[in-house]
Amino acid sequence: MALHLKDKEAYQRLNYLYQAAHCVLAQNPENVELARFYCFSQKTIAKRLVLRQDPSVKRTLCKRCCSLLIPGVTATTRQKRNKTRFTVMRCLSCGQRKTLLNNPDYCLWADR
Amino acid sequence: MLQTVMAAPGKPTKKEIKKQTPAKTSFTSPFASKWSPLPQEDMHFILKTLKDKLISMGLEKKEVKVFRPWRKKKSKKPDVAPQPVPQVSDSSKNGWTDVAARRQLAIGINEVTKALERNELRLLLVCKSVKPKHMTNHLIALSTTRGVPACQVPRLSQSVSEPLGLKSVLALGFRWCSSSDGGVFTDTVDAIKLRVPTLDMAWLQGAKPEEPVAMEEEEGGERRGQKRKLESESEEVSESPSCTLQPLQVKRIVANPAKKKKGKPKKKL
């Protein structure tokens, strides 16, 4: 596939940034800024080259402040219910909420 | 065009079909957070121990099914005379039989998460038959960051909810307790703790000083000209590890040709 070559480097960059953000938070849980910067770069690269990201990756990034969300360190996760059950993740730095519906039959498009 | 064998005139060839439904590449997370597999005997052992313990304790949440007529029950003044239903029946009937023991457990995902955030738990049990999985996925990372053993047991909910009298128990945590209260669950906890396999996160491993030997060699090689004191200091400070880089994982999705309609994406949910 011709697609491979020119974007492969970009994917590697994305991959590296993502893992680097994790490592940063692993070593220094207080240094949210650096992790945020890495994730911001990652998002910008993906946006620039229009690269798709897996929902599993997108779910761990905050949409507003672009920080890497790790439950317990930078984000809180709760179960709520309003007729249906939600899993709500709150980013601690900007307070942005991300709700995930708890539907047992839900199948992501990506896994189709 | 390429040389192709036309099956029938007008019918697109295989190669063209493939191009019509392009494969989309998407960047996938290199970390797949998985629970470590629990061997069967351990699982049975854990379930059995828990069940016996709970039954012997008689810890149960009793809810008296009270028939509530549709009225505003908020006014508890004695003026409101006709209370057909004995509202305050026996306060001992409603609720948990053993309050002190209940305090030592954290039951339910929210409670367990809160306790984990405050580092109150020493053992964590999670039910495996949870759908969708992201309801409990956050617990994995949380517990590994705090060094609390945790494991997934498939039938936790079914076996534990009965003795406890709850509908479903997806997460169970045992708190650290001072020796005054404790002792109720301590032996169970210790017994189970031994059987629990360790959880690892790929990115977390690097933070622990795993291979000081390798690091020393590297550091020594790099800074030869420096004094020994500096070397040893720098080694101590930068225990920074080489988090090994996970290989790039790129997922390829082929759009399903059968589902190609114009208003497609709406009904995916």
Automatic annotation (TrEMBL), chain A:
<dbReference type="GO" id="GO:0046872">
    <property type="term" value="F:metal ion binding"/>
</dbReference>
<dbReference type="GO" id="GO:0008033">
    <property type="term" value="P:tRNA processing"/>
</dbReference>
<dbReference type="GO" id="GO:0005655">
    <property type="term" value="C:nucleolar ribonuclease P complex"/>
</dbReference>
<keyword id="KW-0819">tRNA processing</keyword>
<comment type="similarity">
    <text>Belongs to the eukaryotic/archaeal RNase P protein component 4 family.</text>
</comment>
<dbReference type="InterPro" id="IPR007175">
    <property type="entry name" value="Rpr2/Snm1/Rpp21"/>
</dbReference>
<dbReference type="Pfam" id="PF04032">
    <property type="entry name" value="Rpr2"/>
</dbReference>
<protein>
    <submittedName>
        <fullName>Ribonuclease P 21 subunit</fullName>
    </submittedName>
</protein>
<keyword id="KW-0862">Zinc</keyword>
<keyword id="KW-0479">Metal-binding</keyword>
